[in-house]
């Protein structure tokens, strides 16, 4: 399965690292464009002046991890698309150009289901998407999530509970499934 990762799911570190781990494990093929990566890096500016430089390094590592996932811009596809927010047309164009099955995004209102369906693309919220991967590959997802939790704990120097970590990342269904 190919899935375009919108910038809004790359910006939260925990969510991005779980998605990246699932992609590296071969549970799905991440798809993105340079513009999506730029939007992620720019979104980090609100965290402080050093944040975009850190995010740029993380984006470079992400790009290197998935060289086949990078899709060039397709202005000719963008030009024919109609979405509530014209600034999101490039995300759908990336999905169409790559033959992606889905766009993983929190941004449901700007990606109407009927518009995406007409292009053969589904909109997936990250929690449902990761819950589905966990349902199909419970051992692999458990290992991925534990790696992310352990990294968060090492960075903070304090115990980090799995359920709390996932809930902060807005991964409620995944947290419930992992607790079961």
Ordered list of secondary-structure elements with their pairings:
Elements: E1 2-5, H1 7-10, H2 13-24, E2 29-31, H3 34-43, H4 51-65, H5 75-80, H6 89-98, E3 102-104, H7 113-118, E4 122-124, H8 126-136, H9 138-156, H10 162-168, H11 172-179
Parallel strand pairs: 1-2, 1-3, 3-4
Describe this structure in words.
60% of the residues lie in helices and 7% in strands. It is of the alpha/beta class. Helix 2 (13-24) packs across helix 9 (138-156), helix 8 (126-136) runs parallel beside helix 11 and helix 10 runs antiparallel to helix 11.
Question: How would you concisely characterize the structure shown here?
Answer:
The protein contains eleven helices and four strands; from the N terminus they run βααβααααβαβαααα. It is an alpha/beta fold and 180 residues long.
Order of helices and strands: EHHEHHHHEHEHHHH
**Anisotropy-based shape:** globular
User: How can the largest sheet be summarized?
Assistant: 4 strands, parallel
Strand content: 5-15%
Report the strand count.
4
The secondary-structure class comes to alpha/beta
What spatial order of strands do you see in the largest sheet? 2-1-3-4
Low-confidence stretches: none
Radius of gyration: 16 Å
Provide keyphrases for this structure.
180 residues; alpha/beta; four-stranded parallel β-sheet; globular
């Amino acid at each position: 399965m190919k899935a375009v990762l919108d910038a809004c799911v790359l910006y939260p570190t925990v969510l991005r690292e779980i998605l990246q781990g699932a992609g590296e494990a071969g549970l799905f093929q991440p798809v993105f464009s340079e513009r999506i990566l730029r939007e992620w890096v720019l979104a980090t500016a609100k965290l402080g002046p050093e944040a975009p430089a850190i995010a740029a390094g993380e984006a470079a590592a992400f790009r290197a991890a998935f060289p086949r996932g990078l899709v060039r811009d397709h202005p000719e596809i963008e030009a024919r698309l109609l979405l509530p927010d014209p600034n999101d047309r490039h995300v759908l164009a990336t999905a169409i150009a790559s033959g992606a099955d889905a766009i993983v995004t929190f941004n449901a209102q700007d990606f109407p289901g009927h518009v995406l369906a007409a292009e053969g693309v589904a909109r997936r919220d990250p929690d449902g998407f990761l819950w589905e991967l966990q349902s199909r590959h419970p051992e692999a997802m458990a290992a991925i999530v534990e790696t992310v939790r352990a990294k968060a704990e090492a960075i903070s120097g304090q115990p980090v509970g799995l359920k709390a970590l996932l809930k902060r990342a807005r991964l409620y269904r995944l947290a419930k499934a992992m607790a079961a």
